[in-house]
Known about the structure:
Number of strands: 10
Number of helices: 9
Radius of gyration: 19 Å
Largest sheet: 6 strands, mixed
Bound molecules: ligand LHQ
Amino acid sequence: MPVLEEERDDGILLLALNRPEALNALNDELLEALLDGVGRAAHDNRVRAVVLTGRGRGFCAGQDLKEYQPDRDVGEHLKTRYLPLIRAVVECPKPTVAMVNGVAAGAGMSLMLACDLKVAATTATLVQSFVRIGLVPDSGSSYFLTRLVGPSRALEMALLGDPIDASTAYQWGLVNRVVEPEILREATWEWARRLAEGPPLAQGWIKRAIRAAAHSTLEEAMEREVAFQVQAAASQDHRRGLEAFRERRAPRFDGR
Ligand code: LHQ
C-alpha cells in the first residue's frame, strides 16, 4: 500500500496520508511522497484545489518517533524535508484544505496549520506535543499558532502540550469548520468543489496577499494589492466574471 494515496475528483486532488497504524506519523518515505505530491499539484493545471487528510483515526502524529534516532542530524532533517514541505503547501498557488479526521500532533499539526482552510471532525484533537518529548515547536508551528491564536494561547499549547478538542480549536480560530465525522468528507467537498470552480489566478494572488499581509505595514499591503489587482483585472477570468454577473449566471473560470 502506498504511504500517500491520491484520488482525483474533477479539479480536486485528495492526498491521504496512509500509515494508519502509526496515526500517519511522518517517516522519510511519507515526507518525500508528500513533498512530491504537493509539488506536482502546484504545476498540474487540472488540479484546482488540494485536500490533505489522514487514513484511519488520525490526521498526522508528526515525526515518526519509532524510525527517528536522536543522533541523526535534526537540523538537516528539518531543513531538507519538513521546511520544504511546509513551504510547498503555503506557496502552492492552488487553495489547500486540511480535512482533519483525527489527532494532529507535533509537525502533523504544523502541516494542518499550513493549509489555507481547515475542516475538522468533532472527534479531531490538536496537540503541540513537542514539549512532551523535550522538543520545541517546529515546521512553522510557532509562526502559525502565534498569528492565529496570539502569544498567550500559543504559549499555553506549546508549554503544556495538552490536546485541545475541535470545538476549542474552532473558537480559537485554528479550524474554520467543525462537523460530525460522518459528514466530514461531504462538508470538505462542498468547499473544495467551490474552490476548484473559482478563479485560479485570483486565488493564487489572494493566498500570497493574505500570507504576506501578516508581516506587512498597511502601505506595503495596499501596494501589493494594487500590483495583484492590476494583473487580476487584466485576466480573462475577470472579464468572464463580469459578463456572468451582468447576465445573472454562474461564471466559468479557467485560469487565464
Ligand atoms: C506513533 C506516533 C509517532 C510513531 C503515535 N511515531 N508511532 C521533526 C524532525 C526531527 C525531530 C523531531 O521532531 C520533528 C517534528 C515532530 O513532529 S516532533 C513530535 C512528534 N510527535 C509526537 O510527539 C506525538 C507522539 N504521539 C502521541 O503523543 C500520541 O500517539 C497522540 C497524542 C498523537 C495520540 O494518542 P492516542 O490516541 O492515545 O494514540 P496512541 O498513542 O495509542 O497511538 C496509536 C499508535 O500510533 C501507537 O502504536 P501501537 O503499535 O502501540 O498501537 C503509537 O505508538 C503510534 N504512534 N504517534 N509520532
